[in-house]
Amino acid sequence: MKRNYENIDRCREKNLIRICPICNCNKGYVLHSQKMILPDDYLLDSNFDIVKCIQCGFIYLDSKSVQKDYDTYYECLSKYESDTTITGSGVTEGDNVRFDNISKHIEEVLNNKDASILDLGCANGGLLFSLRNRGYKNVVGLDPSKVCVSNVMNKGIKALQGNILSSELYELSKEYGGFDCIVLSNVLEHIYDLSNAIKKVIECLKDDGILCIEVPNVLKYFEYFTLPFQYFNIEHINHFDNISLNNLLLINGYSCISLKENEDIITLKQSYPVLTGFYKKKNDNKLLPDNYIYDDYLKEIDTYIEKSKENHIRINTELENMLIEFKDVVVWGTGMYTSWLLANTNLNKLNIKAFVDNDRKKQGESMIGVKIISPEQLKVYDEPIFICSIYYSDDIERQIKDDKLTNKIIKIN
Known about the structure:
Blueprint (H helix, E strand, L loop, with lengths): L11 E4 L11 E9 L11 E7 L5 E4 L4 H10 L16 H17 L6 E5 L5 H8 L4 E6 L2 H8 L4 E4 L5 H10 L2 E7 L8 H10 L1 E12 L21 E2 L2 H10 L2 E12 L5 E11 L17 H27 L2 E5 L3 H9 L6 E6 L9 E2 L2 E4 L11 E3 L5 H10 L6 E3 L2
Parallel strand pairs: 5-6, 5-8, 6-7, 8-9, 13-14, 13-17, 14-16, 17-18
Antiparallel strand pairs: 1-2, 2-3, 3-4, 4-10, 9-12, 11-12, 15-16
Helix pairs in contact: 2-3
Protein name: Class I SAM-dependent methyltransferase
GO molecular function, one term: methyltransferase activity
Keywords: Methyltransferase, Transferase
């Protein structure tokens, strides 16, 4: 295994709370320590390290949260239930482009339209609908959110509530006699128990079945930069490049038949980098736990971290200027960007009268002791509205104007 420790000397070595999900090593280098302020009584740890495994080089989140915490989080607090601004539904223009691209890649590898295909983590079924439109007859979804499952089934596609580690996955596999293809699109970056999850998915494939995986590409974060540390959040806990993704599958007896660098469309103006890979069972069927390549990529991650730090300074200066102009604001957005701003910038010095969010699950809850309200409740506030959103600030601004609110609108881009 090749190891290159260039540029790693500046990093602190630590004993890991979460052992490496690829090679089970318990030591790593700390690349960045992240602090966030989450909505009150949140399930997940708000302080964590982004680490690089000493043994295999995998980059991932190290914190006190465990698989059970993430399972509960996605079942009870799923943000993917919305069929308007959040990806997963296939109703927005960006979603349509994204799912058409994925289904096209699947068609290139698997052209049998009678093939059984499971979309694991299907959200509101956008990919399932795209596959059905391409002629695939046997498509089915699995998702932890009861609302998402209901949304899919109301549109005529079979779906079941469950997650990658639940018994429902086996039930579906048994019903279909194993799947010809299982799709994990934007799933593996969210999974704590990564090695066990892959093993369970593979058990549900036919011997000649294909595994389709799409994950954010850590080596391109700096090229798709939007706001500081937006990729280092509480949900994205595994950060893959081509080597670490191949290592994970190789250790489990699967080899790559196709791997492409692509981009996922969030809105027509925003996208992020992804890897789309297809894997099949190795012919020799030998599991070689130590037969992986050391992932020594670091320059690209360093570039992303440094770019984030530079923009952190700029944003903090802009917020400091806001303090001179006014003290009271309403903050629209309680997601990862707001959580980061509250913990790391002068936003916490402003007098926040209320938080606003379109997510009904958050409405009525609180953040730093301040109530989270619905957009309809904004009419009694005349304070400036500070929009805190990574991808949907333009949509929110449009919504404010459509509601004929006259509040001053503030955005930091």
